[in-house]
Amino acid sequence: MSSSADTLSAFLAYSLKNLDSAFTKIPGSAVLVRYVKSSHQNDPGRTFLELILVAFAIFTLLQSRTRTDRSGKHFIQFSEKEIDELVDEWTPEPLAAPLNAVEVADLAAVPIVVGQNGPKPTLARQPSKIIANLASYNFTGLAGKEIIKERAIETLRKYGLGSCGPPGFYGTLDVHMALERDIADFLGAEAAIIYSQGFSTISSVIPAFCKRGDIIVADRGVNFAIQKGIQISRSTVRWYDHNDLKSLEDVLDSVEKERKKRRGPLTRRFIITEGIFEKDGAMIDLPKLIELKYRKKYRLILDESISFGTVGRTGRGLTELYNVPAAKVDMLVGSMAIGLCAGGGFCAGSQNVIDHQQINGPSFVFSASMPALLAVSASEGIEILRSSPSILTKLQQNIRVARTLLDDLDCISIPSHPASPIIHMHVRKPTSGLLHPASASSGHAHSKPSNPASVLPRDASKWDWDIEAEERLLQLVVEEALRRGVMITRAKRLRGQEMVEARPSIRLALTSDLSAEEVKKAVKVVSQALKEVLRR
Amino acid sequence: MSLFKKKAKSGSTTPVSAYFSALSKAETHAVNGVAPTATPALSLSSSVTSSSEDTVLHEDDTEIDNADGLALPPRAPNSSEVFTTVHTEFGHCSNHNFRAISRHIPGTPVPAHVDQDPPYYILLSTYISYLILICLGHVRDFLGKRFHPGAYRHLMPNDGYAPLNSDFDSFYTRRLKTRMDECFSQPVTGVAGRTIQLLDRISPDYNHHQVFTGTRTRALNISSYNYLGFAQARGGCADAVEASIREHGVSSCGSRLEGGSSDLHVLAEALVARFVGMEDALISSMGFATNSAHIPALVGKGCLVISDELNHASIRFGVRLSGANVRMFEHNDMGKLEALLREVISQGQPKTHRPWKKILVLVEGLYSMEGTLVNLPAIMELKKKYKFFLFVDEAHSVGALGPHGRGVADYFDIPPRSIDILMGTFTKSFGAAGGYIAGNKALIDRLRVRGHAGPYAEAMAPPVLTQVVASMASIMGVAPPSLVSSNSSSSTLLQPHLEVEPYHHPAPAPASSLPTWISLPPTLADGSEGLSRLRRLAFNSRYLHQGLIKLGFITYGHPASPIVPLLLFHPGKMNMFHWMMKDRQTPIIVVVVGYPATPLVTGRVRFCVSASHTKEDIDTVLRACDEVGDVLDLKHGLGPGERWGIDEVCARALELVNL
């Protein structure tokens, strides 16, 4: 026994000695020893305190960061049994509430095209012949072009359908690059980038550039995709009155004043608006806007989803209409799905702007690139627009024909610009006359401007339309028109999800594929339906 | 064009039995293979010429250049083999041993995600190499700003404008990613099938600009999400798409609720619902937007989303838009998930402690960077106890997993309707684009009305819809109204050695679910080709996965997953690996991913196996990895004693697959 105890103590002494010598070999160990000795100073209490400090530091470091809310002051400790009881008690709400009667009827009333969509489609569950389609986006009649179909089939036979990969990983095809070049050349921008869905384009472009702390000044009437892009960017937002450049200037001034007062750093500043507004067809005054953005040193994100491919001599959009170089718009966003009857969306701008999105545009980076045949169809569409300006002339002529007939009606009000290919129609109240937010805010001089921090304008409390009743009326108009062979649609909205509830409207989408006579006939049918329903 | 017509004609006149014989084993063929006498068109010589013209040669190439070994199969097909695909798009493989079934063996544990650590010197040197890169980057920035201010102008405040991208924010992109830009955004042309053509490019100025040389290189494609090989420019699906373009045009012209709906949408949605085994489904024209535009319609304020930490960006995007609270749990860790559920249900909403309105658990079926399969059986157990709603994103798993290709639920043999929401994309297994959400009718109708896509986003284009319908129908098989029973017997005849247990929902698609103008060729219509694609994918996935492990590499993910990540660790090795694989006699293109898509130290290469690969293709990849792995010191998995040599791996492939 004693011998084993001896060997043990000898071993301990040996290993201690070894440890000691090893410790002294560590560089800096002498410093440590000296520090401990000097701090000890024959005061064990002090050493003990320091030990506690060290232990506390280690303990804090080891604390997991994710557990912070567990120890937060709102955390309640439960025993396992209590948790089990709470789990048993908890009953979640149903995942989705079933549709109500109105929603069911709305969904059932959605027109379903059989076969090719175009100016005169065949509809399912619709006995009468459709004489005109004023609902679908086929502004320049590209949907029916045989040449596009031929090119699409050629492409299919060379590329297959899907690209099977995001652009970063072998999803970039030569036809994508060709389309990007075509768009850039068509618009006169330095470069362009294509996204695989028009709707997702702007909600990806905005967060690619606008980060937390940046300033966005946006129109109160922007479309849903822009609203979502702004929401996800987490930037500071200021709103100006719908299509009111005076209000925009006031807001820009107030932002600058605020910055000077807070002496904040220089952050990125953007103006976000639409060329032709999806919500009501109003059109911005682009030259003035550009002058303003240069003067105030803002960047402009312009959504031309509706105006690209529909206005201007050859459909280049607002920049062509107003003869403004596209390079003056920092980020020009458009949709090939709407303007070119193909698919996807694009953003045009400087090379720098495009390169940035290739790494930072969420729905560019994390999504498969668009099918090759859609890209080629879009390129072909541009080629057609470029080579035959008569298409656009015809579209504008059809718009004029429609507007002449509709402007005379006193049961509706039209907020849309006379050149807009989409025509929104609100129910006009017999007493109150024009009461659209745009016309209301610009028409009547307000003593006080709206609060830029709130998306609702000042006069929002005075909006007296009954959304449900108007929607019901307009739906009746839609159904009446359909019975007479004209396919139109209400502007469908996500009620309760939009930042500002848009006034219910019927949205006509004109097309160059119908003759002026046919448009006249169709619009007459629509106005008949309007008169009948609204004057009841 | 004319070549194609000829092929289509011969395809339609060939008896079904000839196709069957090609797909069945050699001995099966000996029994019923009297096809050559019955159809003289398929004699030896004509079969060879027809295959060299129609299924091997394609595009405009006049002579076959097979120096890379990609254009021609390693051996000429014999008289019993009739291939209907182009070899460069979809490889020819008639060996029925090279097939496997993708399914979970009940009772076996589902492997959680395991991080296999490399030796310390690898970790240490990885950190050091990032450190060097970062230091060098800052030094270059420091000097550059002083000596070349012009190159930094766009990163600095200029003329009253803040930079779009500050030098600090873009540091990683400029100083680290640019060094390996040749691995990313490589433009390609042609079909993203078994092989793909690269547009060769060089960079004269260290990756700041890329210049195209004008030449093309055909490479073996183990990078595209083409799991079932439906990325094809020839064949039944492409024929159907061509017909649809003539019939429906290219565009739907509008959103679903505003005049962009067509009968094809209705039909495709019904077929998708049937495919995944749900009551109803909706289709969205973009995969990313399927999540980002519909999740906000499911949850909102007062709801809680519990999300796997490695969920895809589109899910995060959608959840952020929804305004719901979010909690994350460690990747695929069911213990952590349960602990989190107990905590959040007992605590309720933050501060107010009110009970949550609903809790939605969001997981992916198959994770795209790790290759892990979700532990669905465990989640279903938790779901019973904790009453949350379950959303499974099957972007990668639908089509790629399960004995019937119906995704992760099929793989685990879990009834799909016990899951609340199944979401998936068509980009991957179906060679199309866009995505779907499937669930019960009330839910899907709600999403149609409340989802962002319904009123605002363009409806899916008719050609894309057709590709979805045709590829799905050929996986399901189409039951002709009169021949329901004979169809099921023929499919068992086809796969005599691979019995599939009776399964409740995957039934063939009724003929009425296809548009009348689609006529699928017999092998697609009876589901035999679809089945063989599923089996080939399962074989290839397991083979590559187990082969890499046996060679000594560290891989991630489930063996059944067609996504096979191989760990490289060093940033420098990613570049080298990419280049060395591409620079071989048979060029292979790979996807390398590093920080920020992965944690800093676990840079990796990600292989995406396809049914279009032949066993020889996987051999080629393994051989290349073996050689490159030796040069780059990548084998840190199995000890040297347990490893196999490359020849042994190739020879014992069947054994590996059945491990």
UniProtKB/TrEMBL annotation, chain A:
Its EC number is 2.3.1.50. Pathway: Lipid metabolism; sphingolipid metabolism; Sphingolipid metabolism. Keywords: Acyltransferase, Lipid metabolism, Pyridoxal phosphate, Sphingolipid metabolism, Transferase. One of its GO terms (molecular function) is serine C-palmitoyltransferase activity. Residues 433-456 are annotated as: Disordered. GO terms for cellular component: endoplasmic reticulum; membrane. The keyword 4Fe-4S does not apply. InterPro entries: Aminotransferase_I/II_large, AON_synthase_class-II, PyrdxlP-dep_Trfase, PyrdxlP-dep_Trfase_major, PyrdxlP-dep_Trfase_small. Its cofactor is pyridoxal 5'-phosphate. Belongs to the class-II pyridoxal-phosphate-dependent aminotransferase family. This is serine C-palmitoyltransferase. It comes from Mycena rosella (Pink bonnet).
TrEMBL record, chain B:
Residues 220-466, 529-624 form the Aminotransferase class I/classII large domain. GO terms for cellular component: membrane; serine palmitoyltransferase complex. Pfam families: Aminotran_1_2 (PF00155). This is serine C-palmitoyltransferase. It is an enzyme of class 2 (transferase). It comes from Mycena rosella (Pink bonnet). Keywords: Pyridoxal phosphate, Transferase. Belongs to the class-II pyridoxal-phosphate-dependent aminotransferase family. Its EC number is 2.3.1.50. GO terms for biological process: ceramide biosynthetic process; sphingosine biosynthetic process.
